[in-house]
Structures are given as C-alpha cells and as structure tokens.
Amino acid sequence: MKRALTGVAAVALFFVLGGCGGGAETGAVEGRDGVAARGTIGFSAMTLTNPFFKIIADTMTEEAERHGFEVVVSDADRDVNLQSQQVDNFLASGVAAIVLNPVDRIAIGPAVRRANEAGVPVFTSDLQAVAEGVEIAGHVGTDNYQGGLLAGEAMIEALGEAGGEVLILHFKQANSCVLRVDGFRRAIEEYNSDRSDGRIEIVAELEGGGLRDEGYRAMADGIQAHPDLAGVFAINDPSALGARTALEQAGRADQVRIVGFDGELAGRQAIREGKIYADPIQYPDQMGLMTVQNIVSYLDGEDFERVHLIPTRLYRQADAERDPTLDQGP
Amino acid sequence: MPEETAQPVRGRMRRLLSGLVDLAGRRLSVVVLLLLCLISSAATWREQNPITKRAGAAVARQVLEVCPVPCEVLVVVRDTAVDRAFAAAIERGLAAAGAPIAGRVFGQPRDVRLEFERIARAGGSVDAIATHRIASEWGPVRSAGAPVVAPGSYSWPTFLTPRNLLNVVNQNADIAIIALGMTLVILTAGIDLSVGSLLALAGVIAAVTAQEWFGGAAASPAGLLAAMLLGVAAAALGGLLSGTMVAAFRVPPFVATLGLMMLARGLALILAVGHQRRLVGGGAEGTPEAVRVGAPAFAWLGNGSALGVPNPILLMLFLFVAAHLLMTRTMFGRYVYAVGGNPEAARLSGVPVTAVLLAVYCLCGAFAGLAGIVDASRFEGGRPNAGELYELQVIAAVVVGGASLAGGRGRISGTLIGAMIIAVIQNGLNIAGVASYEQKVVFGALILAAVLLDRLQPKIASRRARMTRGSTSTPVQ
Amino acid sequence: MLELHRTSKSYPGVDALRGVSLAVGAGEVLGLVGENGAGKSTLIRVVSGAERPDGGWIELDGEPAAFDSPAEARRRGIAVIHQELSLIPQLSVRENLFLGAGWSRRGLVRRRREEREARRLLGLLEIDIDPGASCFGLSLGARQAVEIAKALALGPRLLILDEPTAALSPREARALLRQVRELAGRGAAAIYVSHRLEEIEAVADRVAVLRDGELVHSIDRRLPAAGGGGLAPLDRDALIEAMVGRRLSAEFPPRLHEELGEPRLEIKGLSAGHRVRDVSFSIRRGEVLGLAGLVGAGRSEVARLVFGAAARDRGEVWLDGRRLDPRSPRQAIAAGICLLPEDRRGHGLVLTESARANFALPNLDRFRRFRGMVDRRREGRAFDRWRGQLDIRLARSGQRVATLSGGNQQKVVIAKWLERGAKVVLCDEPTRGIDVGARYEIHEWIRRMASKGKAVLLISSELEEVLGMSDRVLVMHEGRIRGEIADPAGADPAGVLRIAAGVGPSEEPSVA
Questions:
Q1: Residue A90: its chain B contacts at CB < 8 A?
Q2: Total domain count for chain C?
Q3: Contact A249/B at CB under 8 A
Q4: Is residue C12 part of a domain?
Q5: CB contact under 8 A, B470 and C406
Q6: Scanning every residue of chain B, which has its alpha carbon at the shortest distance from the alpha carbon of A5?
Q7: Residue C507 has pLDDT above 50, yes or no
Q8: Residue C34: what pLDDT?
Q9: What CATH number is given to the structural domain containing C279?
Q10: Is B235:B369 a contact under the CB 8 Å cutoff?
C-alpha cells in the first residue's frame, strides 16, 4: 500500500516535471531547428544568481548564434560536484566544445580530463583551472592583478594624504580574488615605501564570501574591531554593498571609503550615488564574446591567444554620471 | 477476521484480486521510475552521431561510391581512443578496396589545417575526406572543397545512451550510498542532518592524512587505503556522537545532528585550511580549497571502472545488497524496525534500544563517510565544501522511496528506487536544459509531495481499502 | 430519537453489519453486547459518522441522517467515547476538556469559568483529578475518566460509550454509570457498549445482542406494569448464550493442579517514589498471585519494577533463590521473566509490524543462524505452532498486527512469551477489552502456565477475575500492600473493595 502511495507521489511529480520539462524542451528545439547547424556549446556557469556570469552566458548565447552554434547554459551553483556532472552531461550529449567558470580550480581537474579524453575542447572564462595534467584549449579572463593594482590606486586617491587603516573583504576560495588582493597590497606597499606619515595600513583581511549578507556581517564585526578604519577594499560589488550597509548602520558611512570590484549594475549605481568610491570594472560581455570567438577560431583551425586577460579600467563617480545605463537621479 | 466465508470460489476470486492490487502497489514506484525514464527519453530525443567501427566501415563504403578507386582520401578524427578505432575501421575498408590514403589527422581542427598545408606543399591533393559528424563541422574540413563523408546521424534519446545512463547512476551513487544510512535513521523515526558535513570531513581527513602521513604523491595503495579508512572512521565516530546524544540523552535527532552538521563542517574547513597553510609553509595564507592528493591510485575508487561500470556504481550496488540483507535477514534489522515502530514495546520485548540507536547513527555516519571517500577520490582531493545540502537530497530520496518519517516503515529497495527517481529527474532536467531555478522548484515540490503523501497515507489507505474489495487488512472489531 | 433501518456495512472479506434495525429513544439507555468482531464497533462508527453504511439508512429525529464526518455527527449532538484515547498529553486536564468547546471572551479563554466547570464535571464522575494537572502524568484510568468528562462537557443528546470502564476503578465506574442514568433521566439517549454484563445490568433499559453482524437477541427490561420504575433483572446466562451462540462451561476454567512448589519470585522492600512503597511478596512455583486495587494504587508499577522497565529506588528481586535486580527488560527477559503490559497497543506490540515479527522480537536469538542472521523458516515454524495452539486468527502470517482484534493481539503477545518459555509471567490487565471467548482462552492459558510450575502475577481491575483466577490475592492501596486474601474463591468482594479503597480495617499486616 505504502508503495502505491509513493507511486502516486511520483506520478504527481511527474506531471509537475512534465510542465517544466516541456517549457525547456521548446527552447532547445528552437535552437536546433534554427541556426545551430554547427553544433552545441555547453556552458557551465559559476552561478547565475550573480549578474556577472549571467552577462557572460547571455553574450555567449548571442554571439554563438551568429556563428551557427547553440549554447546550453547550466548553473553550477558554486558546486564543483554539480559542475563535474554538467561536464559529464555535456559529453554524453555530444557537444562541440565546453566552457567553464571553474568553481574549484583544482577539483574540476578530473572532469576536464574526462573531456580531454573524449576529445572535446574545454575553454575557461573569468576563472582559470590549475589542475595538473589537464588541457585547457583557451582562457579569457580579467587581469585581476592589474585590477588589484587599480583598486589600490583608487584607495590611495580616496584616502588622500591622510592615509589610514584599511580593511580587506576577501573571498579566498576564488583565485581571482587572491590575485586582486595581491595587486591591491602591491599598490599600497609601493605607496607606503617612500613615506613615513600618511601611510596606508592594511589592518585586517576578513572573509566576506563574495556575498552581500556575508560581507555585511564581516564588516559589522570589522568596525567593532577597528574603530579607526578609513577604507575598505571589497573584492566584488556584492560584498562592497554589504559593507556599505554595515557602515551606514554603524553611522560610519562618511568616515570609511569603499573601493569595490566588478562594476556590475548595482555597484555602478552605488558609485553614482557616492556610496562606493570607485570600482575597477570588468567586462563580462567581452569575456563571453571573446570566448565564443576563440571557440570558433579553434574549430576553424585558426591560431588564437590561448590566455587572454582583459585589463580593467577604473570607474569613478564622474564615469557613472555619464553612464547611460544608470538611473540618473538628482 | 472471518475472511473465509461459505463461498470458497468468491473468496478465491477476491484473494486473487487482492494479490493483483497488492502487486501493482508494490511495483508502482518502479512503474513511476520507468515512466520518468520514458519522459526523460522523450525530452532528450536528439540526433546521435555514431563514432563506431560499424559506422567507420559504412563511411569507407560511402567514400568509394563518391569517388571511385584512384582516390586520395584524408581521414580526419580527434585524438581519442574511440575516434582512432573508428578511423581504423575506415582505413581497413578503404585498404580492402585498394584506395590510397592521402593522410590522416588525429587531432584538432588546427592539425587538419596544417595537414592540408603539408599536402599542398607536397603537391598532393585530397579527393575526399572521411570523418565523423563532429569533425565535419570543423572549418578546415568544410572549406577543403573536397566531398566530406560522415556517417549519417540517427535519432535516439540522449538519455538512453549507455554513457548517459552510467552517468546518471554514477553521479548519484554518493547520494544513494548515504540514503542507505539515512533509511536506517528514518526507520527509527529520526533524521540525520549531518551527513553532508560528515561526507566532507571524511574526504578531507582521507586527503590530508594521505598527503601528510602516508607519503603524499608517493603513497602506497595500503597507505591510501588506511587514509580512506581513517576518513570513514571519523565519520562513523561523528555518527556515534549524534547517536549518543539521541539515544542516551534524548536530544531530538534534528537538534543533535544539526549541531554535528556545523561541527563537522567547521572541522573539515579547519583541517583543509591548515593543510594549505602547511603547504605554503606557514603564514596567513590558507584557503578552503580542495586538499589535493598527489597519488594517482587515490582516484581509483571514484574514477576507475570495472567491465565498463564505474567503481562508485559497483560500490553502491554492493552496499545496497549488504544493507538489504542487514535489514531483512538479521536480528539487527528486526530491531531497527521494532525501535522505529514502537520504542517502548521494543524495549519491553528485550530489544537493546539504546544500542540499536547508537548503531544506526554510527552506520549512517559511516555510509556518509564512504560517500565522502568516493567524492574525494572522484575529485582527487578532499573538498571541505563537499556535500552541502546533501542531507536534503538524501532525505528526499528516502522519503520518495516510501519510508515513513514517523518511523517503522520503509525498505532499502524502496530507497534505491527513490534515489534513482531523484537521479533520473535531475538528469532529465539537466539534459533537457532546465535551469537550476526551476530544478529547485521541482525538488522542493517533490519533497513536499512525498511528505504530504506520508501524512495522508492512513486516509488514502483506508479509502483504498474501502474501494477495493479483496484486501483483508481492515480492522473489524 | 435514533433509528437504524436494515443498516449494512461490508469490509473486504467481512460483512460487518447485516441489515441491523435498531432504535434508541429519548431517555433511554441501550446496552449493546457481543463478542469482538460481532459488529459493535462498526455500528458505532456508522452512527457517529466515521463510516457510511453500504445499505439501509439511519434516521435522527425522524429525518434521514447521513453524516459525512464525525464532526458533523458531533454538531448534531452525538458524542462518542472511544476505546482509543484522544487527549493531548501536553495540555492540562481542563484544556483537554474544553478543547474546541471552551468559554472565551473576545478570543481569550475564560479560565476561571472553565476551571469551575471542569471541577463540576470531574466531581460528577467522582474523579479526583486536579483540572490544572497535565494529562501527561495521568494514569490510563485517569485519562479514560477525563475522556468521559470531555464527552459529557458537550452536553450530548446521544452519548455513545464504547467499553468506557475498561480502565476505570470500580468507584469511578459506578459514578460513570450513575451519570449515564442521569443523562437519560434528562431526556438524552445513550448506547452503552461493554463486555461487563453487570454494568449492562446496572445501566441499560434495553439490551441488544449482536453476533456476526446481526441482531440476534433483544431484551426490554422495563416492566410494563411498573410504570418506568424498576427494571427486570437480566438473565446473564441467556445473554452470554446469545452472544457466543454456545454455552460456556463455567466462567473460569478449572484449576489444573493443587499443590504449589518452592518460592520462585521473591520481592523484598520494593520502592519507587511515592507510587510503590516497601512492597514485599513472593510467588511460588505453580501459584497465581492476584494483585487487586484501584487504578493508581501502584499495581502496574510493581510489575514494571519487577520487569526492570522502571527504575527502583530500593528493593530486591529474587528469582529461584538468586538475586536478580533487573535493570532493564532485556535482563529480566534473559532471566526468564515476561510481562503482558497493561497498554497492549502502546507497550505490548509494534503496530507497524506483522504479527509474526512481533512474535519473533524477543525470540530472535532463538532463531539465529550465524552472525545475527535470522532463520526465517525456523521463525515461521515456531510462529505457526503457537498460532495453532492459541488459535490466533490471521489472514496470513505477515498480516499487520494493528489490523487484528484485541483478543488476537493479546494472543500474539502471549505467543511471544510462550516461545520464550519464561519462569515468571507478569499479567497486567490481560483480558481488558477482550471478548468473552478469547478471555476464557487467556484464562485457560494462565492456568496452564501455573500448572507448568511458573509463577504468575495477575493484575486486574475486575475483582471477579482476580478472585476467580488467583490462588492468593494481595490488595494494594496507595502504593502499599494493605491486605492479603488467602482464599479468594470464598472471599467477599465487598471486603476486598474496602481494603482497596483504604476504608476497611486492614485485616492483618501484609505477608512477605
């Protein structure tokens, strides 16, 4: 009897599924019937809840269509296990190429190796894989170290001659963030090297998770521990915005300057409103575009730059005021 | 219960009917699984491009049709074992007819271009290109000007390809293995939220000890085994801890295992970061990345296979048989069902209730640990973030498999089917390209539906008993 | 008021009710008797809206009534007191009494008024329980009493009582019977279902006997001449005959032996909190020792202490001259003590499991092959043997024990201890809620156990049973043994009751 009920449950579910599956199916059919004459590209994104990766996915889809490819986008949801499974699924369905934002630059190795063994080229975007014995056909990413240097410059500019204590909201798990912080530290060190007063001192590195809520919590604790804080460098916009909220609540928003990273919409809006001082901005659209172009070059047998790092550019309030994509309030 | 009345013929008819109803009831979850497979198949009906020896022979024949014998043929495939076998079949076919081979490319599109340039420099020519569907879309092949021959594609559900079916089971082997332990816990009316964290802890401990105690990249198989067993033992110990809280101190299982869940996750992160820190020689650096294991043999359990079947699947099947026997044939199994059905009656019947609960949580931890070893082996390193939210998927598998959260009812075979139902749904959604947001909705609905049915069960059961004449299981006082 | 017209109800394989026509009028109490499985419970379910009849119809106040749910029946003034308890243990007695029917003003519970009303209701039933007490700590009997008070709180027009006194002390039972009569005197109707014919005699105006789903006998006891005054005496033998369809030889089976052996179980100074105080006694081989007393006197607790199911404060348990002092049931079972618990469904059986699995639970070590594997064939053979000997009626051996009648459930409990071959048998209310036929068989079993040299402790709230079955009876009151009756067969039940109630002169100091 019990079994029967389970069965009924599953049948009910299957109707739910039928609904969802159906919707997805038409999308795939369109792709196939339309221009996907040359094959499919599988893209496993870091997480689609972050607009940054969504932009990569959208530009890829658009650009690939122009070249006659269909892009299947999967959300790895920051889970390397899920990402590995997605790679296996891509291989099972016979894609022409695979694109990854590696969730874990080491643990993704075995999955990439399976793709290598199946003869399917793997491209990475934004983040690089460093696992041993794997072949990555091409990488397009941000020059994070250069971005870190720019962030450091922005911080120096923001604090002016007075200098002061600075705190870093890190996300150590991501190698890109490690590079950003390295660059940031390098810029600050250089600045400090020839002066005795007005120095900028990095007093703490807190784990902000690259997320708004975690960044908020970390910052709230940070103000307690370091009451004389003058600046915060957050390794991306969500954690920068979280830090801003914490500072506002503590009534210290005017005293502490924030430098973020990314230049996603919410971040740029905050720069426009003066809540964040500046961002080195990345170009996810260019990443998507160039990744697809690399794939096409690969399949056409043409040479291309195996590792391409797109430099960032510093984006300040003045840039935001000219930015047509922003809500230009009073 | 007077069930045999004066009409033996009618009685027999009724019993036959009840037997049929019962059978359908028992097998319905299997029917549902098959139905889901059918749906997944329909949703993944795609063009398939064969790269087989037979396809290669067919290509050879077709090439000979396109250009008769003194015909320079270029064979283009990728540099993989499957492609090479396919290419060999083409060449055999061509050689049998005496067609010359202008050249062969085992590689990437770029290699094809270079080969054309080489042939051109050598003054040769290519009259036909023999390849498969995927390479036929490569730029240099398309623009070569020579006729391209590739095997015809056929339509077949991607879901139903052997590779995908093995994928489906392999990807969910860890969930299924943990679900075994969870079945035991749920049978005792408990719940174990710590399984995901114990999975991570076991994997990290195995990886760290393999690296630091057993020789790292040079570790012997025995050393690696010892490291893995240490990981499993640690997870079992964790289970024993929550079991003690539940059995001896009457802490609600939800709370006890919630505590352990955080504790084990924290330990896994500390161990992993500590290891990274030692790697770079002290200092503040240290990231919660996977702890990489250098010894290649470490990957055997997760990535190896026997007779074409991945090892995690074999391990899963072995554990399922063992757990099934444990629960149906041994005293311990009977004790577990009794403790779940009515702990007080079990105690008054001489069942060592505390010991049974301890053993159940300990086993659940051990199963989670085993899954952790599989995971670590699969990723060639212990991941401190592994298994996040696994507890929910595992509980869903068990509940969908028909176990009652109230305890006392459920089967290992049901859990296997439950795990497979979840695996098939997930795979079907993935292959059909359903985004992860919608997948979450589906899984949430799945769990709710299963739990709701668990709650509604007595009502539906009595209604069913009333509607179907033939079952004798209605109390009449 | 309520009329059933040729009402039928079938379950798969069973015609539980076959065209029963019955009527209960205002101010009337209908006694309903019959063996288990005769259709009494089905009849109650049909009347209370829990089930719909397959055939015939029911009229309430002359109008056809088809209740879709028990809630609807309740709205029409039909209250049912079930055998299964439905109190919420976390709530107090008062809160349980007025759950869903309390007094409130603007959503706030009018606590004082409820409290007053609760005291009144409990007082009517002569139940000495504090309305503020939590139901969690109440004994089964007390909970049953609260259950009855809860039904009365609704002021029903038709009250249905299904074995209401099974867990009540005699005093509480008498008070309940009086309440039922008073209710009838105020113009309400009642259907009173019981195995206890003396209660039926005390309360019923008319008696209907069901057997195999049919109405086989009906007696109207109101004397046509007396004008509503007295009731004619009840011919119990005729009733029993109608119920079972055969005449039983005697009420209790005869003793199988006379002489008793060495002391087998000796209890010295057993104490646990205020519930059991300094209890000492011994039972000899072949002896049935009765333990009488009111509900809450500590009798069940004594059995649980001897069985190791509850923690002792002090005291010793000796078995066959060796000190045992079991600290868990497992230890007691290993030593050869077994317990038929008072709460059969809650403590005796794992309801989610089959009869066979329940039978096998304490005996798995006997069916062990190697490494803890269970030899299922040996298990099946053993079960089939006892199933035949005890006449346990099952559709198949894998049948869930929850679906069995009370008598068959108790037999399953007995079978598991029979297989165990215990030396000491502790029976706590072994025949509660069990029909006449099965009850007789259980009594026979007790006799057989004794004749095999086992020591039997028999706890029962039915004085007749304790006195009729025991070689010796101890009477408990408030945790202490207050008296001993050496010749139960010839004892005066009233005297026993006085000791149990703590009013009679304690004859002699209790004997160890």
A1: none
A2: 3
A3: no
A4: yes
A5: no
A6: B453
A7: no
A8: 78
A9: 3.40.50.300
A10: yes
Q: Give the mean pLDDT of C270-274.
A: 86
Q: Are A123 and A183 members of one domain?
A: no
**Residue C495 pLDDT more than 60?**
yes
Q: Tens digits of per-residue pLDDT, B308-332?
A: 899 999 999 999 999 999 998 899 9
Q: What is the dihedral of CA B394, B400, B403, B407, to 10 degrees?
A: 70
C250 lies in some domain: no
pLDDT in tens, C139-159: 767 777 788 788 877 778 888
Is A6 inside a domain boundary?
no
For chain B, list the contacting chains (3+ Cβ pairs, <8 Å).
Answer: A, C
3-state secondary structure of B142: helix
Per the structure, how many domains does chain B have? 2
- Indicate the residue of A11, A88, A301 with minimum beta-carbon distance to B171: A88
- Please tell me which of the candidates C40, C361, C393 has its beta carbon nearest to residue B346: C361
Give pLDDT, residue C134.
Answer: 78
What does the alpha-carbon distance between residue A74 and residue A61 come to, in Å, rounded to a whole number? 12
**CB–CB contact C373 B468 (8 Å):** no
User: Which chain B residues are within 8 Å of A121, Cβ to Cβ?
Assistant: 108
Question: Does B209 fall in a domain?
Answer: yes
Q: What is the CATH number of the domain that holds B97?
A: 3.40.50.2300
Across the interface, whether the CB atoms of B138 and A77 are under 8 A apart is answered no
Q: Kindly report the CATH number assigned to the domain that includes residue B201.
A: 1.10.3470
Chain B residues in contact with A96 by the CB 8 A cut-off are 134, 137
What pLDDT score does A203 carry?
92
Please indicate, yes or no, if residue A2 is contained in any of the structural domains. no
Helix H or strand E segment including A321: helix A317-322
Helix/strand/coil for C44 = helix
From the CA of B351, how many Å to the nearest CA of chain C? 7
Could you please report the per-residue DSSP string of C323-334? Answer: E---SSHHHHHH
Residue B254 has pLDDT above 90, yes or no: yes
Q: Are residues B102 and B168 in the same domain?
A: no
Confidence of residue B256 (pLDDT cuts 50, 70, 90): very high
Residue A230's Cα: distance from chain center in Å?
27
Question: What integer pLDDT is reported at residue B155 of this predicted model?
Answer: 87
For range C432-441, the mean pLDDT: 78
Asked whether residue B147 falls in the same domain as residue B189, the answer is no
Last residue of a domain, one of A136, A165, A194: A136
- DSSP string computed for C457-482: EEE-S-HHHHHHH-SEEEEEETTEEE
Residue of B nearest to C393 (CA): B1
Q: Sorting pLDDT into bands at 50, 70 and 90, what band is C131?
A: confident
- pLDDT bucket at C281, cuts 50 / 70 / 90: very high
Find the closest chain B residue to C375 by CA distance: B329
Q: Please list the alpha-helical segments (H only) found in B388-431.
A: 390-400, 412-431
pLDDT for A119-176, tens place per residue?
Answer: 999 999 988 888 778 899 999 999 999 999 999 999 999 998 888 999 999 988 777 8
| Domain-ending residue, one of A94, A116, A136 | A136
At CB < 8 Å, which residues of chain B contact C?
Answer: 1-3, 5, 11, 14, 18, 329-332, 334-335, 337-338, 340-342, 344-352, 404, 407-409, 465-466, 468-477
In a domain, C441, yes or no: yes
* B288 min Cα distance to partner chain A (Å): 6
Residue B186 touches partner A, C-beta closer than 8 Å? no
Q: Are A131 and A148 in the same domain?
A: no
H or E stretch covering C134 = none
Say if residue B288 is in the same domain as residue B387.
yes
| CB pair distance less than 8 Å for B163 and A91 | yes
Average of per-residue pLDDT across B226-247: 96
- Please say if the pLDDT value at position B281 is more than 70: no
A168 touches chain B (CB under 8 A): no
Cα dihedral A27, A28, A30, A34 sign? positive
C412 to chain B: which residues are within 8 Å by CB?
Answer: none
Domain assignment present for residue A62? The answer is yes
Of B187, B191, B190, give the one whose Cα is nearest residue B335. Answer: B187
C198 and C293 fall within a common domain? no
| Average pLDDT of the residues in B339-345 | 91
Contact A21 B44 (CB under 8 A): no
Where in the sequence is the domain holding A61, given as residue range(s)? 23-136
Structural domain containing residue B269: 162-467
Flag whether B25 is in a domain.
no
Q: Is the residue at C257 inside a domain?
A: no
Whether residue A230 sits in one domain with residue A111: no
The whole-number average pLDDT for the span A279-293 is 93
Q: How far does the CA of residue B315 sit from the closest CA of chain C (Å)?
A: 22
> Could you tell me how far CA A227 lies from the centroid of its own chain?
31
The whole-model pTM stands at: 0.76
C-alpha separations of B93 from A10, B476, C412 in Å: 50, 77, 76
Interface touch C40/B477, C-beta < 8 Å? yes
Mean pLDDT of chain C: 82
C414 lies in the same domain as C444? no
